Amino acid sequence: xxxxxxxxxxxxxxxxxxxxxxxxxxxxxxxxxxxxxxxxxxxxxxxxxxxxxxxxxxxxxxxxxxxxxxxxxxxxxxxxxxxxxxxxxxxxxxxxxxxxxxxxxxxxxxxxxxxxxxxxxxxxxxxxxxxxxxxxxxxxxxxxxxxxx
Length: 149
Prior knowledge:
- By secondary structure, the chain is mostly helical.
- The chain has helices spanning 11-34, 42-57, 66-73, 87-96, 114-126, 131-138, and strands at 111-112, 143-144.
- It has a two-stranded parallel ribbon.
- The relative contact order is 0.10.
C-alpha cells in the first residue's frame, strides 16, 4: 500500500495567493490610470451646446441635458458618425419605419419628417462631411406631416 500523505504547511498556497493578489492590484491600478471614458473635453462640450441649439431651433420641447449628449455623442458623434450612409445603417433605419407587423405582413409606411430631423441634426453638428450622403438616401423616403401634436 502506498502512503499518500501530503506534508503541506500551507506556505506554497500562501505564495500563490499573494502573487495573485498583487497581480489583481497592479491590473486595477493600470485600469484606473488608462480609463479615459469619463473625461469630458472642451470640444465635446462645445459640440453638445451646438447640437442642443440646433434642436432648440428645430422646436424640440424636451431637450436632453448637455451631460447626456456629451456621454452619448462625445466629441466625434459616436456610432452615429461611423459611416452613417452604409447599407447596414440604412437597413436599420428602414426596419424602424414599418407598420409594426413581422414577416410577410411587414410593410413600409409614410413616416413623419420629424423622425428624420434628429438624425440630420446629429450629423450636421458632429460629422457634416457625411451630411450630403445621408440626405441622398433620406430624400428617397416618402415623408409627410402625419403626427399631430
